[in-house]
Specification:
Keywords: ATP-binding, Endoplasmic reticulum, Glycoprotein, Nucleotide-binding, Signal. It is found in: Endoplasmic reticulum lumen. With 314 residues, the chain is an alpha/beta fold. It folds into two domains: 212 residues, Rossmann fold, CATH 3.40.50; 56 residues. The protein is 49% helix and 10% strand. Helix 1 packs antiparallel against helix 2, helix 4 packs antiparallel against helix 5 and helix 4 runs antiparallel to helix 6. It is globular. It starts with a helix and ends with a helix.
């Protein structure tokens, strides 16, 4: 009897709208189904992006639009695949964390949000075949358990070449993975690859007297894609995933100016209850390193070193 109870509850849930909330709550009180933990809040995601990510109008717009469009589609023909590119400290990992936080009730601690770091999970370039088999089985197993799984691959520039291509069968619309619903999953690749191309365009734009907010996604999509595909120190080097256009969007993260860094400082000071410490904002902003040499426009570490410097100057 207990074995059929979840099925009966789901049947009742579907057959009675008025009782939907009650039965869903009852079902989820003893079920570990990812459907119970999957609680996407697009409005809060957008608010978080625009309130707490600085200097990234392209990333804010692209991530909000693509995630919203994907989740509104009840029967997507392919997963959502986002590839984040830009220099250190520009907000790539922060935005990936926001995704997990606003998709699942248990946020990044959800068992359905999976993070991979090459130095930890794929440390040896000589064991690519082994890693491919393990990664394929891991992804397939987790998609079987939860079609709404989120997979985040950080530091793609350190990923052994060819390893990530094992995901190809899970990413395209024409592929079939036996007994696995893979089209509702979300994949995020994070890399510094492409940062030179991004910096070059931003610098040219600045020297021409144009505002950085005038830059459109189309100005960087192809440039970043080509840069990533041809970068030998990147996990997507000559990747079939890129070649077959299986990445939904390449999301560029722009280098940060001193103004953006100081906004990061202010935000973190407020979290510590010290919003009014203008002296610390000024001190941290002035203590950062900026390039290029002839202009000192962009922070070389973005906002990455801000927390440590705040602690020093407080």
């Amino acid at each position: 009897m207990l074995a059929v109870l979840p099925a009966l509850l789901l049947l009742l849930l579907l057959s009675s709208r008025s009782a939907c909330g009650v039965f869903q709550k009852l079902y989820c009180s003893f079920s570990d189904s990812c459907d119970c933990d999957f609680k996407p809040n697009i409005r809060d995601l957008e608010w978080d992006l625009y309130k707490n990510v600085f200097g990234q109008h392209l990333a804010q717009d692209l991530v909000a639009e693509e995630v919203s469009r994907f989740l509104l589609n009840k029967s997507p023909d392919r997963p959502l695949v986002l590839s984040f590119h830009g220099s250190s400290g520009t907000g790539k990992t922060l935005v990936s964390t926001m995704l997990g936080n606003h998709l699942y009730g248990s946020a990044m601690s959800s068992p359905f949000v999976h993070q991979f770091v090459p130095a930890l999970h794929f440390p040896s370039a000589e064991r690519v075949a082994q890693y491919q088999a393990e990664l394929k089985n891991w992804v397939k197993g987790n998609l079987t358990a939860c079609s709404r799984s989120v997979f985040i691959f950080d530091e793609m520039e350190k990923m052994p070449a060819g390893l990530i291509d094992v995901l190809e069968p899970f990413l395209g619309p024409s592929h079939v993975v036996f007994r696995t619903n893979y089209r509702k999953a979300i994949y995020v690749f994070i890399s510094t690859a492409g940062q030179e191309a991004i910096h070059r365009l931003i610098l040219e734009n600045r020297r021409a007297g144009r505002d950085r907010d005038e830059i459109k996604p189309s100005d960087l999509q192809e440039v970043v894609q080509q840069s990533v595909y041809s970068n030998k120190t990147n996990g997507l080097y000559l990747s079939s995933i890129v070649q077959q256009n299986l990445i939904t969007r390449f999301v560029p993260f722009l280098p940060l100016t001193r103004t953006h860094v100081e906004r990061c400082v202010r935000a973190q000071l407020c979290q510590r209850g010290s919003c009014n410490r203008d002296d610390v904002v000024e001190a941290v902003g002035g203590d950062m390193t900026y390039d290029p040499a002839e202009g000192h426009y962009f922070s070389t570490t973005g906002c990455k070193a801000v927390a440590a410097k705040i602690s020093f100057f407080l």
